[in-house]
Amino acid sequence: DQQVKQNSPSLSVQEGRISILNCDYTNSMFDYFLWYKKYPAEGPTFLISISSIKDKNEDGRFTVFLNKSAKHLSLHIVPSQPGDSAVYFCAARKFGNEKLTFGTGTRLTIIP
Amino acid sequence: DAGITQSPRHKVTETGTPVTLRCHQTENHRYMYWYRQDPGHGLRLIHYSYGVKDTDKGEVSDGYSVSRSKTEDFLLTLESATSSQTSVYFCAIRAGGADGYTFGSGTRLTVV
């Protein structure tokens, strides 16, 4: 039962353009969402998060949008840079629960 | 990552042998986690700890045990390794709050 889904295993984007990564969830009890970035042979690193009381959070080139009614979130990266090439995981958490539930990941490739 | 180290980084073991993976932190964080990463599954929580001698199961805990006798060390033991436990194992730490999960660099375990 995959409660957090990333339906696109891979995505290729031209350098300088916008990258949009999508994530859907099924559990309405999730109230906090995070995005992680992972390079090969390294652990995931935290990128950006959003609480369910917000619908947008921005940090530099990264913006996360949350649509609670659709149970959908997206990560926008603009402009995309070669160093953004990595696997991106979205994750979700219920309030007061220690468990982060991860999606299966999307491999983003930025084409120079 | 600074403050969290996993050992060994790579291990090949035979089916039926016991294996222990170690996670060591220098941050004095309360929470520690063990995840496994597999293709098509993202990261899945195995066990976590919320203090010395305080541990709980995650979503894929069967076949694994953990121990935390000191704040800085969290051990993951496969009592009798099976081929299905071939995976990349990540440890994570967290001080508190919803953000701030810091992951180690991972241990690649192969069970032959």
Report on this structure.
The complex is a heterodimer of chains A (112) and B (112). With 112 residues, chain A is an all-beta fold. Chain A has strands spanning 4-5, 10-14, 19-25, 30-38, 45-51, 56-59, 62-67, 72-77, 86-94, 101-102, 106-111. In chain A, β6 (56-59) and β7 form a beta hairpin. Chain B is mostly beta strands. Chain B has strands spanning 4-7, 10-13, 19-25, 31-38, 42-51, 54-57, 64-70, 73-78, 87-94, 102-103, 107-111. Chain B is 0% helix and 58% strand. Chain B contains no helices and 11 strands. In chain B, the strands form 2 sheets. In chain B, strands 2, 4, 5, 6, 9, 10 and 11 form a 7-stranded mixed β-sheet that branches. In chain B, strands 1-3-8-7 form a 4-stranded antiparallel β-sheet, with no helix packed on it. Classes of the chains: A mainly beta (112), B mainly beta (112). The interface between A and B is medium-sized, with 24 and 26 residues.
Top keywords for this entry?
heterodimer; A: 112 residues; mainly beta; 6-stranded mixed sheet; 5-stranded antiparallel sheet; 0% helix; globular; B: mainly beta; 4-stranded antiparallel sheet
Helix-strand layout with pairing:
The complex is a heterodimer of chains A (112) and B (112).
Chain A: E1 4-5, E2 10-14, E3 19-25, E4 30-38, E5 45-51, E6 56-59, E7 62-67, E8 72-77, E9 86-94, E10 101-102, E11 106-111
Parallel strand pairs in A: 2-11
Antiparallel strand pairs in A: 1-3, 3-8, 4-5, 4-9, 6-7, 7-8, 9-10, 9-11
Chain B: E1 4-7, E2 10-13, E3 19-25, E4 31-38, E5 42-51, E6 54-57, E7 64-70, E8 73-78, E9 87-94, E10 102-103, E11 107-111
Parallel strand pairs in B: 2-11
Antiparallel strand pairs in B: 1-3, 3-8, 4-5, 4-9, 5-6, 7-8, 9-10, 9-11
Low-confidence stretches of chain A: none
What is the residue-averaged pLDDT of chain B?
A: 93
Q: Could you tell me the mean pLDDT of chain A?
A: 94
Give helix and strand order of chain B, one letter per element, not per position: EEEEEEEEEEE
Order of helices and strands of chain A: EEEEEEEEEEE
Largest sheet of chain A: 6 strands, mixed
Beta percentage of chain A is over 45%
